[in-house]
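To whoever is covering the structure queue this week,

Two jobs came back overnight. Logging them here so there's a record in the thread.

Job A:
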Amino acid sequence: MERIIAKDLLSIGAVFFRPDEPFTWASGIKSPVYCDNRLTLTAPMVRNDVEMALAHTIRTKFPETEVIMGTATAGIAHAAITADILGLPMGYVRSGSKDHGRQNQIEGRLEPGQKVVIVEDLISTGGSVIKTAEALREAGAEVLGIVSIFTYGMQKGLDRLKEAGLVNYSLTNFDCIAQVAAETGYIKDSDIARLIAFRNNPSDESWIGGAK
């Protein structure tokens, strides 16, 4: 599954590689890779692979799931489609409470004690999905875990998820996509070491000029 999803994401240009001209994330981190999983929504065949894989992961890893909750905003559509496949209720969690109306942070009906799985599009340092889990727990939900499309596998993210008591299952990951990208000519074999160096220590930018 990891390789199928990796090939799918690469085939529609959802993963961008620029090791010589890195992207800058909102956090200020410079990255040789940018993953835009929103593009899967406009590619029906890839979208089907992704949503069926998310549903299969939830069925096998969290069979007692009662509600699917998406992260805002990128996880909402994936949570909705996956919940439809599974025949389960769905909602989503805002990054903060609304400043009008009912001032909800959690949208959709959620009863205390319900078993919830969070659907996220990608995980880097884990901050946003942890905040989502905290909001759900404060509302009385039992958060079983997370399913995501892609994870960078950064140590900071792994440590933060463990500290928060959250388990994540991703359909594919940074190492797999890098390997498949090299095999299919999206990047050079020599770029793999640079990508892994970034993943292992994002604050060390020496990888940027590593192939020059």
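Job B:
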Amino acid sequence: MADSLNQGDPPAGVFNSIAEWEQTWGHGAGQYSGGRVIPFEFGGTAEFTAPYTLETHLHPVLTPYCLQPFGGYLAVIPGGRLWGRSGAVLSAEGRLIFELSQEYGAEEGRMLMAEEHPVFRQWNQPQLLEMDGILAVLTFCGSYNYFHWLYDVLPRYAMLQAAGIPYSRLVMNPNPYGAFAEQALAMLGIPEASVIRAGPDLYIRSECLLVPSLMMNSHYPPWTTLALRQLLLPHRQAALHTPGRIFISRRQALTRRIVNEEAVLRCLQPHGFVPVCLEDFTLAEQIQLFAAADIIAGPHGAGLANLAFCRPGTRVIEIFHAGHVVPTYWMISNHNALKYYMLYAEGSPGSAVNLAGLEDIVVDIERLLSTLKLAEQG
């Protein structure tokens, strides 16, 4: 293949959106042809209703609204390239396609701007590997996290299935922090030998890349939860004995733990709650735990992504740090017609962490019991 860049040259600019790439396709693409963007419909309007709560101040991110899902597509990128640990997507001529390559900056504590992308700041002159065939790309910077694995990777696999475009191999990120990714691939019948893992030395140019749009750019439409249910619910461990009321403990986590968890459990156990640490369960068992539960309570955390597998009407009580309110699991509860309740907790006094999203919390027992009473009446 002819190459407009020397193999060690860094990327030559940015396409901020797939629309920018599509508009310029054919101008300077050289021998490559067949590039296109295939729209993907996520369904009807999503409606989000207010949480049930005793709190007098409802955080703005939990305000009711309606949204028509938008922005879904599959990009067919002849001669496309993939680079680095997160699997950044580059065009045939070597320009970063930022919309498909968004990156979180740990030092900045936020998603990075296009000009801050590691492909410009950490270019390591990797050896370019040429590959024939179509590579389907499911890379995402946060896929090591359980929520992001479920909601930013697997629905995009469902998009590939729905599109029916044949591909030779999948490209995904490695997952060193848990077995859930490997377990999900086994459920879906995806052999590890068919997966290319991104890494710091990755630099591939494929005959063609097939890249589904990022779910976060479409604000996680209800279709994402439906897709997860269709993919994974049939594989739940239905024989597992499961309690009707579960409390999700974060005592094995490094952050956002409940300091007075023993007192919380003492007040909840007479009401039939059983504490569980989701780290102790396989993916199939986690799916069953949530699918069988009547009431689920716990602090904000990635394990609540399993709300995707609950039955409609299941009651959910989410406990937030008052300074760190994120609508993710309220959103999933709305997708699934769950009855969602919430309450605030306070940061732990004397904590060495000064970031609300990581700080341990102290739960007001009386307010928790009052919220539970409200849920039981509902």
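Note for Job B: Residues 44 and 124 are 44 Å apart (CA to CA).

Please reply-all if you pick these up so we don't duplicate work.
Q.
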